[in-house]
Model the fold of this input.
Amino acid sequence: MRRNRGAEIVVYPEEAVFGWLNPKVFYEAQPIPGRAQAAFATIAKQAGVWVATGLAERGPQIASNPAIYEVFDSGILIDSEGRLVLHYRQHNVIKNAFSECPVKYGSQGCSYRRVRSVMLKSSRPRLVA
Done:
């Protein structure tokens, strides 16, 4: 994964921290910036490469159950200095795959709404064929 071997960007899969369809995201996902994003930033800086990944991002608490959070299916891009340069957030539809919804997550748990995307300006990595 080191830049001296030719890599300029490393791409991790969607939901790289918890895996797909893991109900722990509703309790354990962290905000961005946060611990998971910081771990990927450390990888980027130490390896001297850009890192792109998808991860669950903690949203607001569910009113009907304050121990549970809404979750966003987010994507981040981190430059080779470890700086967050792009943060894309979309409402996570994973909750609709669980039979407990809407009872466990309340009426807010299965709602859809428009979510603001955040993009930070920075230089772009150059793709090399």
